[in-house]
């Protein structure tokens, strides 16, 4: 399953999606000696901080660049980058009208909608028929945030710069659609995946902040730690380094993993396509195979420690070994690839998204050598998504640094609402 971006939320009686993000960051940050290539890691981190502070403009290209240029000059350096008007040759650029989308998605097909642009993209979602969305979206503050159908993927050309296995192996595609008469903005948010954001219709102004400056980002007490609501005009007055870029139709923006972003829709009708893929660090983290005991009874306090972890993760990322690029074939449409995106029947969805696999046919993703791991908990064999199993995994991950926590928790917790989480946390723990 693709390592997806998450609804990162505060603790107490709120869903604990923040759990897996913490452990993912902790796994990378605590194993520093595995990846640092120099003896002066601290000095290296300072060098990257100075570079991000002095950077004031996002580099641009008037044409599509090669995968090698994109990967080595921008992705491995975690530097945002814009390619202008490169999506104007997609069929979607001309054929994705309102009627086309209604017909492609099927009039009665349920689409995922977020109410309130300030909650985008991690606010609560509701599913409504696509025709109902189009009947309401010009009067109400609704944003369609869902996957295109398999047929719609034929209208999207894979950007040449990502036609390599590192990008396409587990890539997902999202569709944004927002229609408002006045200019509106999102809160400041981040994704745990790498992104390419393309504009098919409309325009937008994007503000970006490096994770290196996460500790300077104000926290407004909102339940979502991945969202910060404040007036972006104060960024300069508070001395928070940031980048601003204007996007028009056909433009393609690379947004590195964990970078904070703020989107202002400038046009009345805005249609975006978002490509998401796991960072190369997911491959490097495979070196952390065994679990190790986490010292202390509690996780670091929020939200200050959370922002500190984002900074440390970025420093860690910038000092990792660069993986060689593998581009075996190019010039394909999205539908020619097999990955987890595209609308499908509920039955097929359940087959693919059935949570952790604890069957004997596939090895358990947790540490098999640790007899306390969920691999040896009988309830997880019977039903990996049962409340008692989820409670056990949460308790286990609270005591052990296990790679399985970063792999399995996103799949489990993305399906847990507030009521179910309250039920889970009220259960008597089976963890010893």
Task: Give the SSE layout.
Blueprint: H1 18-30, H2 41-54, E1 59-61, H3 67-75, E2 81-83, H4 91-95, H5 98-105, E3 110-115, E4 125-129, H6 130-136, E5 142-146, H7 165-168, E6 172-179, E7 184-185, E8 188-189, E9 194-201, E10 204-209, E11 227-228, H8 234-237, E12 243-247, E13 252-255, E14 260-265, E15 269-277, H9 281-284, E16 292-293, H10 304-318, H11 346-352, H12 378-382, H13 387-397, E17 400-401, H14 403-413, H15 418-426
Parallel strand pairs: 1-2
Antiparallel strand pairs: 2-13, 3-4, 3-5, 5-6, 6-15, 7-14, 8-11, 9-13, 9-15, 10-12, 10-14, 16-17
Word description of this protein:
With 432 residues, the protein is α+β, with helices and mostly antiparallel strands. It has 2 domains: 54-279 and 300-318, Jelly Rolls (Sandwich); 362-431, no CATH class. The protein is globular. A 9-stranded mixed beta sheet has the order 1-2-13-9-15-6-5-3-4. The chain has a 4-stranded antiparallel beta sheet with strand order 7-14-10-12, with no helix packed on it. The protein is built from 15 helices and 17 strands. It starts with 17 loop residues before the first helix and ends in a 6-residue tail after the last helix.
Short description:
Helix content is 29%, strand content 18%. By secondary structure, it is of the alpha+beta class. Helix 1 runs antiparallel to helix 14.
Which descriptors apply to this entry?
single chain, 432 residues, alpha+beta, Jelly Rolls, nine-stranded mixed beta sheet, four-stranded antiparallel beta sheet, 15 helices, 17 strands, globular, disordered N terminus, Cupin-like domain-containing protein
